[in-house]
Amino acid sequence: APQAADTNWAIGLTQRERQVAVLAANGASNQAIATDCGISERTVKAHLTAVFEKLNLTDRLQLALRVHGIH
Fold first, then answer.
1. Which residues touch 71 (CB under 8 Å, ≥6 apart)?
2. Of 67, 70, 69, which Cα lies nearest the Cα of 20?
3. What is the pTM of this model?
4. pLDDT tens readout for residues 28-57
């Protein structure tokens, strides 16, 4: 069964962390995410750091795979 709609990866994340994670997983740069969300690039980095720690990931590729249900 396809897992595109599976949101289990996001359990334990805040709404903003989820939003930043999805944008990053879709290839957006930190600057683009900051502009899109109306927050600073530093805040984007802080959210991504929290997401990586909470999901036990080390990079954006792992994040993309998790968000898209591939891994």
1. 62, 65
2. 67
3. 0.88
4. 999 999 999 999 999 999 999 999 999 999
